[in-house]
Amino acid sequence: MELRQLEYFAAVADEGGFSRAADRLGIVQSAVSQQVRRLERELGVRLFRRTTRHVELTGAGERLLPEARAVLAAARRTRQVAADLAAGGAPLRLGTVQGPGDRLHRLLADLAVAAPRLPVRLRRLGLAERLAAVRSGELDAALVRAADTAPGLELLPVWSDPLYVALPAGHRLAGSSPLRLEQLGELPLRLAPREQNPPFHDLVTGALRAAGAGPPLGPPFTTLQETLAEIGAGAPSWTVFYEVAGLPSFPRVAVRPLAAPAVTTYVAVPAGAPGPALRQLLDVLP
């Protein structure tokens, strides 16, 4: 079995046909067909049903496709590690969060001073994917915001940032700074559903319970821009957010700091002794 056979098999499955797979791979269709037939003979199963109009995976093909993808992914990682070693060392693979950008920039600047020859690869993934990548070894570490538990991993606090409240500029609380959660108990809260960001949702709702505040729920938070536009133009409501790329400014909307809680960013790392690249990162953490 050759890697190119698995690559051709996956390409045909992705493209739904031998001709389109050949175009994507930049080779002639006969070469793709020949290698897939050889793979089928070696494995002893048919991978595709071929008709004059289309190509589809057989049951065996569906079972074997994830395994082929895993082998190809492992081969790519092996080549990348070899390239990194040839270039002077394995890189630090770090999952990142969105903003505030200056925090990450300062961390990377400190790391560059402490370990100038250490390559750093940043990856932006969703929270669940980020943590899963650290557990699987695809990432050495990942920054996570507000998540104070991550089974199988250690969470080390790195920095904390204030939260901000946005409310109508004409509201009686718009002149208060900082605001306290108990002051906002009667104004409808715009909060995203928990499944979109469980740690942040739990941070806010837990702080509201601790403050004895139970604001009614307003329309859900969508994007920051859309939510602030609706706060400025619609029925009175408020939302809470953290800074990503500077504090926003919207007509008829007041943005005020929240006295508590703050949102903490952690670095999630595997349990046990860190490797050389991860050790370099841990050494520069505040």
Element layout with pairings:
Layout: H1 3-15, H2 18-25, H3 29-43, E1 48-50, E2 55-57, H4 59-86, E3 92-96, H5 101-114, E4 120-124, H6 127-136, E5 141-145, E6 153-161, E7 163-168, E8 189-190, H7 198-210, H8 224-233, E9 238-242, E10 253-257, E11 263-270, H9 276-284
Parallel strand pairs: 3-4, 3-5, 8-9
Antiparallel strand pairs: 1-2, 5-11, 6-11, 7-9, 7-10
Helix pairs in contact: 1-2, 1-3, 1-4, 2-3
Write up this protein.
The protein has 286 residues and is of the alpha/beta class. It is built from nine helices and eleven strands. It has helices spanning 3-15, 18-25, 29-43, 59-86, 101-114, 127-136, 198-210, 224-233, 276-284, and strands at 48-50, 55-57, 92-96, 120-124, 141-145, 153-161, 163-168, 189-190, 238-242, 253-257, 263-270. It has a five-stranded mixed β-sheet with strand order 4-3-5-11-6. Strands 8-9-7-10 form a four-stranded mixed β-sheet. Strands 1-2 form a two-stranded antiparallel sheet. Strand 1 (48-50) and strand 2 (55-57) form a beta hairpin. The mean pLDDT is 89.
Strand order of the largest sheet: 4-3-5-11-6
By DSSP, the count of extended strands is 11
Mean pLDDT: 89
Tell me the helix content.
40-55%
**Series of secondary-structure elements, N-terminal to C-terminal:** HHHEEHEHEHEEEEHHEEEH
Count of alpha/pi helices: 9
Radius of gyration (Å): 26 Å
- The 3D shape can be described as elongated
Residue stretches low in confidence (pLDDT < 50, at least 5 long) are: none
This entry's quaternary arrangement is single chain
SS content category = alpha/beta
Largest sheet: 5 strands, mixed
Q: In what range is the share of β-strand residues?
A: 15-25%
Distance from N terminus to C terminus (CA atoms, Å) equals: 50 Å
